[in-house]
């Protein structure tokens, strides 16, 4: 299969003016699998009501079949077609944070979505992306698009079209090439099946952000479930091929030529030898570190002859929970 690449970088503000936009829309309606940029990571999108298309997502990624997918929408009006009994507090949070990098797990109606989207659960995770290209594609197709990250399962998620092409060339029908994504890690996922809600996966939108809108809406209960209710809960994620080690103290670090260090630019002067890869401007620049993380992991892993990668620890930094969630999973390969 030849993977088509549609470069829309000059049409981000109004995708409808892109000369081949109808080809993209028609391909989705035909059931094809196409990677699209979102503000979090690039997503591997297909018709969420087409079981055969969804099966091809799992096949292309090498993704376990019990790992549910997130459905992407362009309007809250679409929710009534495939969900029901959504808690009023969830609607308040949707109104505040959509479009944006947050997904809500809500009760799903039977018989609308392909059953492999939900992995047989009675709930579904739903998101409305703020990325202009993604939002316009969903609006123009007026479809429900299932879209996990567009990478080989277990590897760092793609934040550039080049990452998608590296993992998916020849496996999927097409890639919509936009700019590097703005957020850089996957969406916050909130389990809204019971109140108070629980965070199933941390992301750029934090518990503090949510509770400023609805005080007390998030429980501190940790979700323990052998059957994942959201992506990123059970299987190996985000890991490069090279061994990765977390470093807590960065002071006069000396590397061998076959080693790399991923850390904030502000500490580059402490690292001698080897290869330095930027992870944000400083330790306080958590959003910059999230933006850089997956590209940094891929960049370090691609260095010729690399045998070991080190990465800085942000644990003590405020609002670093989502960043450290991804780093720890990459380090432990869990």
Automatic annotation (TrEMBL):
Coiled coil start-end: none
Pfam name, any one: Sua5_C
Enzyme class (EC, first level): transferase
Chief localization: cytoplasm
E.C. number(s) listed in UniProt: 2.7.7.87
Secretion signal, residue range per the UniProt entry: none
Record's function text: Required for the formation of a threonylcarbamoyl group on adenosine at position 37 (t(6)A37) in tRNAs that read codons beginning with adenine.
Protein name: Threonylcarbamoyl-AMP synthase
């Amino acid at each position: 299969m030849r993977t088509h690449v549609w470069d829309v970088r000059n049409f981000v503000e109004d995708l409808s003016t892109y000369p081949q936009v109808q080809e993209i829309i028609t391909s989705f309606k035909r059931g094809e699998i196409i990677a699209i940029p979102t503000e979090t990571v690039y997503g591997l999108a297909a018709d969420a009501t087409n079981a055969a298309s969804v099966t091809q997502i799992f096949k292309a990624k090498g993704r376990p079949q019990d790992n549910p997918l997130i459905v992407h929408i362009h309007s809250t009006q679409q929710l009534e077609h495939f969900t029901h009994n959504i808690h009023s507090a969830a609607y308040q949070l949707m109104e505040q944070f959509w479009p944006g990098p947050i997904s809500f797990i809500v009760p799903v109606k039977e018989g609308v979505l392909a059953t492999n989207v939900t992995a047989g659960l009675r709930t579904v995770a739903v998101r409305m992306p703020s990325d202009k290209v993604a939002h316009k594609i969903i609006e123009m197709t007026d479809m429900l698009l299932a879209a996990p990250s567009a990478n080989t399962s277990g590897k760092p998620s793609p934040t550039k079209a080049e990452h998608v092409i590296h993992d998916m060339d020849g496996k999927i029908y097409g890639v919509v090439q936009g700019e590097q994504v703005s957020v850089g890690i996957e969406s916050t996922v909130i389990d809204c099946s019971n109140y108070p809600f629980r965070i199933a996966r941390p992301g750029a939108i934090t518990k503090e952000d949510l509770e400023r809108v609805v005080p007390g809406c998030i429980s501190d209960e940790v979700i323990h479930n052998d059957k994942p209710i959201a992506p990123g809960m059970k299987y190996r994620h985000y890991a490069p091929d090279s061994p990765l080690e977390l470093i807590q103290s960065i002071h006069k670090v000396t590397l061998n030529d076959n080693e790399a260090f991923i850390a904030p630019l502000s500490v580059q002067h402490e690292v001698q030898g080897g290869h330095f890869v930027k992870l944000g401007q400083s330790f306080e620049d958590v959003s910059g570190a999230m933006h850089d993380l997956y590209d940094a992991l891929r960049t370090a892993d691609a260095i010729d002859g690399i045998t070991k990668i080190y990465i800085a620890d942000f644990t003590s930094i405020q609002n670093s929970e989502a960043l450290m969630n991804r780093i720890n999973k990459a380090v432990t390969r869990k």
